[in-house]
Inverse folding.
């Protein structure tokens, strides 16, 4: 395992995200890459988290949840592989039944290619909302992408 530097989502940003999303109390929620639980602690009561640092590995999860909300990791600290976003998204789409919300940097957003959007669409997942968030602590813009199952996409692409 490599030296680890974790960038936990700031509390104020988590609060803004949760307020923006207007969560449904009747749904089940999962925060698969919970870090210091800043998002998880704000979710409605029917919730669960995973955190590799606590030996709760989301990639071993087989349970399903209505909604997943997360700031996915950039690096797999076990293998030191960088940009594991697509691996994270694929697992979230396997586990979620209705909606997945991801906080992404521009570097990670660039991984969402037309070919990948098409593959996600073939599995029933499309982007239904894009919200730009300024996170001064992290020096820039971040993107809150909402994917929904069997919905109408707000994003077009040419592959």
């Amino acid at each position: 395992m490599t030296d680890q530097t974790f960038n936990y989502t700031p509390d104020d940003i988590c609060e803004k995200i949760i307020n923006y999303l207007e969560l449904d109390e009747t749904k089940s929620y999962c925060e698969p890459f919970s870090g210091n639980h800043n998002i998880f602690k704000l979710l409605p009561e029917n919730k669960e988290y995973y955190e590799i640092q606590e030996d709760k590995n989301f990639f071993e999860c087989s349970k399903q949840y209505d909604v997943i909300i997360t700031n996915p990791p950039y690096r797999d600290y076990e293998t030191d592989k960088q940009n594991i976003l697509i691996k994270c998204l694929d697992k979230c789409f396997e586990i979620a039944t209705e909606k997945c919300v991801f906080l992404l940097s521009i570097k990670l957003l660039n991984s969402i290619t037309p070919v990948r959007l098409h593959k996600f669409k073939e599995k029933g997942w499309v982007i239904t909302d894009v919200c730009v968030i300024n996170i001064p602590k992290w020096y820039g813009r971040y993107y809150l992408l909402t994917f929904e199952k069997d919905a109408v996409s707000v994003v077009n692409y040419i592959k």
User: Anything to note?
Assistant: The longest helix spans residues 11-21. The first strand starts at residue 29 and ends at 31. The helical segments are 11-21, 85-95, 106-109, 114-122. The mean pLDDT is 91.
